[in-house]
# Entry
Amino acid sequence: MIFNNVDFDTYARNYPDKNGYFGKYGGAYIAPELKKAMDEITEAYFTICQSRKFIAELRRIRKEFQGRPTPVSHLERLSNKLGGVQLYVKREDLNHTGAHKLNHCMGEVLLAKYMGKKKVIAETGAGQHGVAMATAAAYFGMECDIYMGSVDIKKQAPNVARMKILGANVVEVTHGLQTLKEAVDAAFDAYAKEYKDAMYCIGSVVGPHPFPMMVRDFQSIVGEEAREQFVEMTGHLPDAVVACVGGGSNAAGFFSGFLNHPVDIYGIEPLGRGTKLGDHAASLQYGEEGVMHGFNSIMLKDENGEPAPVYSVASGLDYPSSGPEHAFLHTLGRVKYDVINDEETIDAFYTLSRLEGIIPAIESSHAVAYGIKLAKQMGTGSVLINLSGRGDKDMDYIIEQYGIR
# Structure
């Protein structure tokens, strides 16, 4: 499939290029002392992770520990309520630890083990990446430091408790807005001091090369499974697929299964409280080209050209940039990126819970809300939504802020 002069049949082999660029986005904008560490990870990824032994071990882990493949579920009652469009969800909420994050965490920590590292360092917003990383570290017997902003620690108390029970050291980040961006800043600072014995396991398709590529590749299992399962279930491809996008790890993995097929693809960003800067985290909709956290992408900037303050009801989406591959796919037009606000998100959270018995994460509820909106516009056809995580972590916060509806 050729789209805007890009051959999507060979896309994964050609993007990113050897320097980590998806078109003009990506790269590795890092301090000289970290370049050697990133080069070491890149070399290890292209050798160790392609070995028969590594692949066999990761496949065994996915099957025996994670519980993969996760199913695709037909949302029959919701579909009937909406009319002619059939809605389906890929159930990453049923992946061990309750979200897609373990897909790349097990891969990253397995790689760190093969490289002889003793410790892993990570950041987290909603806490799902932190829980997945703590789980992987416990599984492989490694030390684990998780950096998390004070605001998110308060919002995501259940996940903080899970990380601590799993043996991780949760490091509270108290500067700036005390959310995901600041957690990433702190984790990078720590890694710069410990890179000889530790590996920074980035939680999304962001950061310097090779992480946007590596996380996407580990997450591609989601898209591969979803496409095959949907065709087996229905006999055809979905008309559209939908996933939420913050940094964009769940979406990158999910979309990879459909990029070279005649399927409409939608990435959904958080509009939050509205379009005013500081009230949302929709970088692809309202941002401009810029460099942060070691990569070039599309980001939200303040009046000084620095990363702008951002907000979302979903702690896992409040990041002022998006992965470089998403910026590239946005520029190409292969993926349509749109927005959903907080109110639509919470409505979708309760709708899915009440009609289908599935409590979604707030992050995933953005995709569910857009899937519902899209179904109303389409009239007929099918939509497959990536349900990237479950909502256990969010229930106390939602009840406190929005009540029971």
